[in-house]
Design goal:
- The chain is an alpha+beta fold and 76 residues long.
- Helices cover 41% and strands 20% of the residues.
Length: 76
């Protein structure tokens, strides 16, 4: 298993997980249960996404495409 994402934005982590699953990758999102227990305590990097070793390159490509805005919706 390879870690491909570490962050603290729950919605971004869920979105990336969905994009990877849609591409056929087996994805494991860890740290979501901590979200409710954090309260007002600032915590950074408590969410992580791991994938199978063979899927690391594809997962990284998906994250890079997301960060470039390739998945952004067109606004008219």
């Amino acid at each position: 298993m390879k870690s491909v994402y570490r962050g603290s934005d729950y919605f971004e982590a869920q979105l990336l997980t969905g994009l990877m699953e849609q591409a056929g990758l087996q994805v494991f999102l860890q740290g979501t249960a901590l979200q409710g227990g954090l309260g007002e305590v600032p915590a950074m990097g408590h969410l992580s996404i791991t994938v199978n070793d063979a899927d690391q390159v594809r997962a990284t490509e998906i994250i890079d495409a997301y960060e470039r805005g390739d998945y952004a919706l067109e606004v008219e």
